[in-house]
Amino acid sequence: MNIKKVITGALCAAMLALSVTACSNSGNSDNSGNSSSSSSSSSSSSTQSEESTSSSSSESTPESVPSPDVVRIAALNGPTGMGMAKLMEDNEENDYGYEFTVAASPNDVTPLVANGDLDIACIPANLGSVLYNQTDGGVQVLAVNTLGVLYILENGDTVNSIDDLKGKTIFASGQGGTPEYSLNFILKENGIDPATDVTIEWKAEHAECLQFLLQTENSVALLPQPFVTTALKQNEGIRVALDLNDEWDNTGADSSLLTGIVVVRKAFAEQYPDAVNQFLDRYAQSVGYVNNNVEDAAQLIEKFDIFKAAVAKDAIPACHIVCVRGDDMKDALSGYLQVLFDAEPKSVGGKLPADDFYYGA
Known about the structure:
The protein is an alpha/beta fold. Helix content is 50%, strand content 18%. It has 16 helices and 11 strands. It has helices at 3-16, 21-27, 29-45, 50-60, 79-94, 110-115, 125-134, 178-189, 206-215, 227-234, 244-250, 266-271, 273-292, 294-303, 309-315, 326-343, and strands at residues 71-76, 98-103, 120-124, 139-147, 150-155, 169-173, 199-203, 220-224, 238-243, 258-265, 321-324. Helix 1 (3-16) packs antiparallel against helix 16 (326-343) and helix 5 crosses helix 14 (294-303). The longest helix is centred in the C-terminal third of the chain and has 20 residues, at 273-292. It is globular, with a radius of gyration of 23 Å.
C-alpha cells in the first residue's frame, strides 16, 4: 500500500478543507460515555423517594473537566514549526494559554518531554517510538504532521543515483532521528553499507550542513525543506541530486517516508482530554491555513522566528505539511516504524510501540 497516496489524496484534501470533526469525535469518546452515564443516573433518580432526590441529583451531575493553566508546546525550525505559525498567532490574539518554544534540534526537545517539562512537542517520526519505550508508554502520538521532506543536495554534478554516493562524504543533521535511519535504510536497500561505503559527518543543526554545502565545491549534504530552498536560492551551483521520497518508494517498502509527528505526554492527555482534542482541532486548522494562504503564512513564520518569509513562501508547497490523525495516522506511522524496526530495531527504541501509543485510533 502506498501510504503517501492515501495521505496526500483524500486525507490531505479533507484536512486542508478543515474537516476535523471525525477525529475530534474519536478523541472525545470518553465524554459521550460520561453523558450516557449521566442520563442513566437522572432516570434512576426520578424513581427514588423525595428525601433522596437531592442527593441523587448531586451524584448524577458530571464533574467539570479540568483545564490546564498553561499548555507547553515545542516545535522545530522547519515544516513542523511552519504548520504551527497560525496557531501561534491565534494564541496571541485569543490567549489560549499556550506557551510555545521553537527549537533548532530534536535534542533540545525530547529530554524535556521525557522529564515532563513539555506537554506537547513536534519531533522526528521515529523518536516518538523511542520516547514511548524510554518512558514505559509515557507518551502518545497525536498526529503525523510532516511527510517526506529529505533530499540529497550537491554543490556540483557528480551524484545522479544512490550508487554515486559510494565513497562520498555526506554532511547531515538528525543523528538518531528520521534523517539517519531513513538514509541508512535507503543505502542498505541499494547495497551500500553506511558504515564503510560512505562517510556521514553528523552536525548538530541543519544550518551547519547548509553552510558547508554553500561554501564547499563538490560537497554533498542531506537536508530537509525549507533548508533545501535556502540552498538553491543562495548558490546557483547547488542542485537537488536525489529526492529521498522517490528513493524510499523505489525500495518497495510497504509504507511511505514520514518525517515528523506530534506527541503528548500520556499523563497530560489523560488529565486534560478536552484540552488535547481542542489543541488538535486548532492545529489542524493552522496547518490548513498555512497550506492555503502561503504568502500570509510566510509572514507569520518569520514573525515567530521559524524561518525567513522569502524562503518559507517558496518552500511551503514542497514541505508536505499535514495533520493526519486517528486510524489514518496509525496506519501511516505504524507502517513506517515497522520498516525501520525490521532494518534496525534501535531506531524505534528496541521494540514497536503498543496500540495505546496511537491517540484516538
